[in-house]
Design brief:
Number of domains: 2
Structural class: alpha/beta
Strand order of the largest sheet: 6-5-4-7-8-9-10
CATH architecture of the largest domain: 3-Layer(aba) Sandwich
Helix content: 40-55%
Radius of gyration: 21 Å
Mean pLDDT: 92
CATH class of the largest domain: Alpha Beta
CATH superfamily of the largest domain: Glycogen Phosphorylase B
Shape: globular
Largest sheet: 7 strands, parallel
Distance between the termini: 23 Å
């Protein structure tokens, strides 16, 4: 970086960013920062461009020490850790945390940090941005609870139209938010950084599930289906469905076939994924979020060279039509899941073709390509 005529120039991913002073960006989430790979990528990209980036999250009693990164990280500790009291307390603490700090833009990650960002941005007259990691009001665990759904839908209706700048993880969610509220958000997909694959022995024969262990992830079909599949499964992740998942495993007598690792740091998760044989990422259609989403695990499997079984939903189908990296099923029922997994296990010609396609697709579907859209978004934000 060098100074010319009093301006700083930073060249990153082929884009020149010109600013009279370093822009200070605050990104806010309700997780504890350790496992949020999307925010780690976003903040690293913007810090590399010369922005002063601070990622604000939550501190829990079990939170691991933060890894040093190219941006600042702060955690807010609360008395309450779940439910409406937690969201109210966190937003109140976040409001005062950000209020007394200089910022050029505030970015709310999902609906649960939107209120604090909105009111601070109004008081300080700074730009506000919405990063929708999901269509929160269309998640199964929200829409199946009418009172909770009404609250979050009220927040969405009131505040999303006030965030005219934003981006989300799939074109489908961007279109839906535009239909509902007239906002025009960019689609910046949740893709991994392209790494060299480790040289290793032949893959082990186990199926990998990674990601949130939440409702609507198809576990009610997956676990019974595994009784018909002669292959162990490793589940990496945690979430609100974990008690039910453990009960399903016990009911189907699969304790010796399924390994639960809990949450893992990104590097450890990447190591395990490169040892697996195939990936699984199914979801129920109940809740529009699942139907329109494009979660990071879909791309993580591709980067690990893992053929996968996933859903015949629009976002997956569009990519699979171009690259053929997965087997798509129409419904997450026991018969369909078992048949698809057995197809990957026994049809070696199909498996090797999908695996080879993953190795080609990862060269295009990666963060080094996708971050160019993020860079362009922030350049446009501060030059217009």
């Amino acid at each position: 970086m060098k100074s010319i005529c009093g301006y700083r120039f930073c060249i990153f991913a082929g884009i020149n960013i010109i600013s009279a002073a370093v822009k200070k960006l605050y990104f806010t989430v309700t997780n504890d920062l350790t496992y949020d790979q999307r925010m780690q990528r976003i903040c690293t990209t913007l810090a590399a461009q010369g922005y002063a980036v601070t990622l604000v999250g939550r501190k829990l009693s079990a939170s691991l020490p933060l890894t040093e990164r190219k941006y600042k990280q702060r955690r807010i500790q609360c008395w309450f850790n779940k439910g409406k009291l937690f969201y109210a307390e966190f937003n109140l603490r976040l409001f005062f945390f950000v209020l007394f700090r200089k910022a050029d833009a505030l970015c709310a990650i999902d609906l649960d940090t939107m209120m604090a960002n909105y009111y601070v941005s109004r008081l300080k007259r700074v730009t506000r941005i919405y990063d929708a990691h999901e269509l929160f009001t269309e998640m199964k665990e929200v829409i199946t609870r009418p009172r909770i759904h009404r609250v979050w839908l009220g927040i969405e209706k009131k505040y999303v139209p006030k965030f005219q700048h934003g981006y989300t993880v799939s074109e489908g969610i961007a279109v839906e938010l535009n239909r509902r509220y007239g906002v025009r958000y960019a689609s910046i997909r949740n893709m991994p950084v392209l790494h060299d694959l480790q040289v290793q022995a032949p893959r082990e024969t186990f199926i990998l599930y990674q990601g949130a262990v939440n409702e609507a992830r198809g576990f009610e079909a997956l676990i019974p289906a595994l009784r018909q599949v002669d292959c162990p499964v490793v589940i990496c992740g945690d979430g609100n469905f974990m008690p039910q998942l453990k009960q399903l495993i016990r009911e189907n007598g699969l304790e010796n076939k399924i390994t639960l690792t809990g949450m893992l740091p990104p590097d450890e998760l990447r190591r395990i994924s490169q040892q697996a044989y195939a990936g699984i990422a199914i979801a129920e259609k109940e809740g529009l979020n699942q139907y329109l989403a494009l979660p990071n695990k879909f791309f993580d499997y591709i980067h690990a060279g893992l053929p996968q079984v996933t859903m015949n939903f629009p976002e997956y189908r569009a990519i699979n039509d171009k690259y053929e990296v997965a087997l798509l099923i129409d419904t997450p029922d026991i018969t369909s899941v078992a048949a698809a997994l057995n197809n990957l296990l026994h049809d070696t010609v199909l498996y090797e073709r999908l695996k080879a396609n993953c190795m080609k697709a990862r060269l295009e579907l990666n963060w080094q390509q996708e971050e160019k859209k993020l860079a362009a978004f922030y350049q446009d934000l501060f030059t217009h």
